[in-house]
Hints:
Elements: E1 2-10, H1 16-32, E2 36-52, E3 55-67, H2 72-81, E4 85-93, H3 102-105
Antiparallel strand pairs: 1-3, 1-4, 2-3
Amino acid sequence: MNKFEVVLLISPDIAKPKIDEEINKFKEIIKSSSGKIVNEEDWGLRDLNFNILKFKKAFYKFFQIEILGSEISNIKKDLTQNDNFIRHLFIKVNKHQDLPTKIANEKK
């Protein structure tokens, strides 16, 4: 199993219940791919450094996961096909960083 840190940017146009639903779908995809979610953080609604599509803000979600590297391309494909996720980033790490992250501790 490889360790990954994942950041998901979710459209600011959707309501909180829909965000929760999309995150639960993401978690199910990880579990069905024989992976596990080690930790997660909600970074909230944040400004983007540049517009993505028409958006100036996005909801940020951070995950630490363990999964086989071969499964990542399928997960990325699912995220790309979902219009509610405007960006995603998977970073392979040797060791997960300690939580909470600096971003989670920032004042908004």
